[in-house]
Amino acid sequence: MMTKAIPWKAIRKLLGVFIIFVCFFFIYSPDSGKKASNKKSCKIVDYACRDGNLLKGALGDYYCVNESIFFVETSFSNVLTPRQACAIESTAHHNPSFQVYVLMTPIKAIDFSDSYIKIISTLTNVHLVHITIEDLVCGSPVWKWFVSEKWKKSKWQASHLSDALRFFLIWKYGGMYLDMDIVCLRSMEHLRNIAITENWERVASGILIFQKGHELMKRCMYDFVQKYDSSNFVANGPGTITRNIKAYCDMDNIGKISGADCNVDILQPAAAFPIPSKRFQREDVNLQNALDFSENAGTFLESSNQCRDST
Q: What is the value of pTM for the model shown?
């Protein structure tokens, strides 16, 4: 009795067709397409800067930035408040050799018909730049944090977005970051690798002056991403730099950091906070008498509630 031969050739052919069908299904099925489209990514723009690093605007504009001054408006507003305009104007006036970048995040576009935008636009060393945060931080640890949308859980979204951007900007470009309520009283052009303490217990994050690529700013940027707390207002800004400056300089006493060999200096509170916030809120405080505008005064003034003429 003859046994029938197994048709291996036909089986292999059928198996090959089946494998091709399975691959085709997974590659072109609607579900796989959705998964691919939901996976976010960013494209780093390949544009060579002779001096500095590239800063990409939202409208296809590019800037080669190096050791500049940065203000960041992260409330998605398309205009400036009087206090913000005062901060920008005073800084540009006292630091004419620096380029000042005002990075704004409007939903549509900056409103150049706004009266304060018009004033700031006349300053020759000021650049009003419409940015998209996702494109700005592409290629950095901050990008993953931003697209994760953890910041959307916060009650202080604008503040926490600016917390992330300040460490990124000064690490990548170098120069100075100033909060939008910081009025400049005199030139900062001689300052390098400077932070300011609020009360000798905590370092302020509203004024940062560091060289590009400074290790402290890099540590702050990574630490911010890893330990971000959407439920805490100050932990991500002052908390981040205070924790990291102590570790970086191996010094628990903030008052002694300037004497440590870590390429960081700490300015005393009077340099920017001449009136403690609790006293500032008292109605009986005479600002004109309380503030010192002499040559011995501090370089900055935090205009917590109103902007004063510093000239």
A: 0.80
